[in-house]
Amino acid sequence: MYDYIIGQIKRVTPEYIVLEQQGLGWQIFTPNPFAFRKTEELKQIFIHMHVREDAQMLFGFKSLDERELFRKLIQVSGIGPKGALAILASGNPSQVISAIEMEDDAFLVKFPGVGKKTARQMILDLKGKLGSLLDQVELPSTEDELPLFGVNPNKQEMEEAILALLALGYSDKELTKIRPILEDNNELTTTESYMKHALQMLLKMK
Predict the structure, then answer these.
(1) At 206, is the pLDDT very low, low, confident or very high (cuts 50, 70, 90)?
(2) Residues 6+ apart with CB under 8 A from 131
(3) Which of 127, 137, 158, 199 could staple 93 via S-S, CB 3.0–4.6 A?
């Protein structure tokens, strides 16, 4: 029904962004909301509309390839939109595609909500069908997307990253383990950089 929406990003939260178009604010769920920033410039967001009995939800992506991978993932039994977002939020979809092609279920089960059975189902359903995406999909990464704010901006942005990871399905127990490492890393200055580093550690933990 929708292919894309062009508008101004008015709000960024740990779960979604709000894109304003002609006076209407669209709530759009994305893999990493903090890859976006509030701006008066017009931005194009590629849309997937998910309809269920109790809700109609919009999922947004910066590229067609990112959206295509999302659509492939939600076709797998056991993976819903939230699970697909968590996988895409890792920032390195080529690793996911490679794991599917190499039948590396040990890597796939590291994502929240993906157990052994679901990982095998991903391989069964998608192996051999993602080759065209392997060299094309690259989730954008920006180290300066969000402005610094407050007396202690790094702490604020770290907390935002923690909230976003909770929204993706990671547990308090998992995040408690990596929190001290994030706090001691002075090179992390933005919410997205905290998320990227945290996701790298989480994928190595299991």
Answers:
(1) low
(2) 101
(3) 137
